Amino acid sequence: MRIPNEILMYFRGQRKLQNEVSLSETIDADGQEDSLQLLDVVGIEDTMLEDLHDRENALRVRRLVRECLPEREAEVIRLRYGLDGTVPLTQREVAAKFGISRSYVSRIETKALKSLRAGLEAATPRKNADS
Questions:
Q1: What is the pLDDT of residues 44-62, one digit of tens each?
Q2: Which of 8, 58, 73, 82 is the 20 to 30 Å CA partner of 93?
Q3: Helix, strand, or coil here: 42?
Q4: How much is the mean pLDDT over the chain?
Q5: DSSP letters of 6-72?
Q6: Lowest model confidence (mean pLDDT) among 29-33, 74-78, 82-86, 96-100
């Protein structure tokens, strides 16, 4: 119960800083040598592996868009999903850019996604049924 009280007292004593708190600041532990830092008591979620996996997937999708789709379909997918670091557009916005109907954009998108799914399945190694 001592640690939560120390944290609470620390934050009360630091009101003048309002919302500015450093995780490396020391929490006074009554002058003991083994003082705590906020970092010691605050959980930090490590997302490095997830971030790398997401980045790898994004690169794979961009490569598949480049390699599996005709230019027009690729451009529709890039615009719809913001693959070039832009804000994703609605089907209506893509239709206005190309001067075509929203329903035609929908058909292009559906066909392109089907091609991408097939390309992804072909590129993904399958596990043996025996393993």
A1: 666 777 777 778 888 888 8
A2: 58
A3: coil
A4: 77
A5: HHHHHHHHTGGGTT---TTPEEP-TT-SS-EEHHHHS-----HHHHHHHHHHHHHHHHHHHHHS-HH
A6: 29-33
Tokens of residue 121, six digits: 């399945």
* Joined tokens for residue 116: 């991408």
**Number of residues that make up the chain:** 131
Question: Taking the complete model, does pTM exceed 0.70, yes or no?
Answer: no
Whether 116 and 65 have beta carbons less than 8 Å apart is answered as yes
SS (H, E, C) 14-25: CHHHCCCCCCCC
In sequence order, what E strands does the chain have? 26-27, 36-37
